[in-house]
Hints:
By secondary structure, the protein is an alpha/beta fold. Helix content is 31%, strand content 27%. The longest helix is centred in the middle third of the chain and has 18 residues, at 198-215. It is globular and about 70 Å long.
Amino acid sequence: MSAETMEITGAAQRAAKAAYGEGALIVCDNLVRIFKIADLEAVALQGLDLLVAAGEMIAVVGASGSGKSTLLNILGGLDYPTAGRAIVADLDLTRLDRRERTRYRRRVVGMIWQQTARNLLPYLSAAENVELPMILDGRRGRKKRALELLDLVGLSGRAKHRPDRLSGGEQQRVAIAVALANEPAVVLADEPTGELDSATSAEVFEVLRHINTELGTTIVVVTHDPLVTNRVARTVAIRDGRTSSVIVRRTERSYDGNHRVISEEFAVLDRAGRLQLPRAHIEALELADRVRLRLESDHVGVFPDSSGAEPPGPAPSRTGMAGEGTPR
Ligand SMILES: Nc1ncnc2c1ncn2[C@@H]1O[C@H](COP(=O)(O)OP(=O)(O)OP(=O)(O)O)[C@@H](O)[C@H]1O
Ligand SMILES: [Mg+2]
C-alpha cells in the first residue's frame, strides 16, 4: 500500500470513528477495562458502547460486578480504560494530561457516591461543603451560590449544619449541591440512594430529576432501585461489562385523553452486530455454544442447534449464519 493510500485509509477510518456518537455528550466507544491482580485478570468492561445525549437522565442497572462503577469511574476521570474511548463534552478522557484531568473533574463532572460519608467532609457545614469545590476552582461569589444550591435541593434551612446533624437523605441532597457547585455538564451518581429507605430515596431521586429538568444537567445514575428505573426515560442494563438491553419509556396520550406510560425493552445491537440474548431466553430453549440464525422478511430467528434438526420452514441458506462471532 502506498503512503498516500495509507493516509487516505487512515483518514477514512478516523472519519468513521468520529461519526459514532457525533453530537452525543457522553460517548463510550468499545470501552474495555481489565484489572490485573497478580496473575489474575478481571475483565470489568468488555467492549461497552453507550451514548448519552445532552440533557438526558438515564439509569444504569446490572448485577453486582457487571461493571457499573467501573464505567462511572472512567467517566468521572478517576480511572482509565484499558482500551476504547470515553468522550465527555468533546473531551477525550484517554488523552487528557494531569492538569486537564484535574480541571475536567472540577468543572465538567460532578460525582455522588452511595456512601454518604464519602461525599461530604464531616468537619465542614453543609454550606462550606458546597463552597469547597468552588474554592478549589477559584470561583467568586461562592457563599451566595452555595446558599442558592442548598435552596435548590430544598435545604436552605440546613446551611450551617454539619453532616452529623443531617439525616442520610439530607446528606445526599447536600452531596447533589456539592456536585453541582461548578456547574458541571454531567452528574454521575453511583447508587446515591443505596443506603436510604424507600421514602427518602424517592425524595433524593426527585431532587435529581428537578436538577435535570431545571438546569438541564445530564445525569447518569447507577441504581438497584426499581423506583428510579421506573421513572427515567431510558434505563440501560449492563451485563458482563457490556450494555445488554435498554428500556425506553415514553408517555402517550390515549383516546380518552389520559396519559399512560409505555415501557419497551430492547436488546442492544452493537456496531459489530453482537447482541446479548436474555438469560431467560437462553435457558428456556437451552441454547448453548452455537445457534442457528435465519433471516426472515421482518425478523431474525434464533434456533437451538442441539437436536441437529433443521429449523422449521423453507430451507434456509445457513452457510455463515450459524454461530456468528465476527471479531471486531
Ligand atoms: N480496583 C479493582 N481491582 C480489581 N478488580 C476490580 C476493581 N474494581 C472492580 N473490579 C472488578 O471488576 C468487576 C466490575 O466491578 P464493578 O465495581 O464495576 O461492578 P458493579 O457493577 O459496580 O457492582 P456493584 O453493583 O456490586 O457495585 C468486578 O468483577 C470487580 O471485582
Ligand atoms: Mg458498584
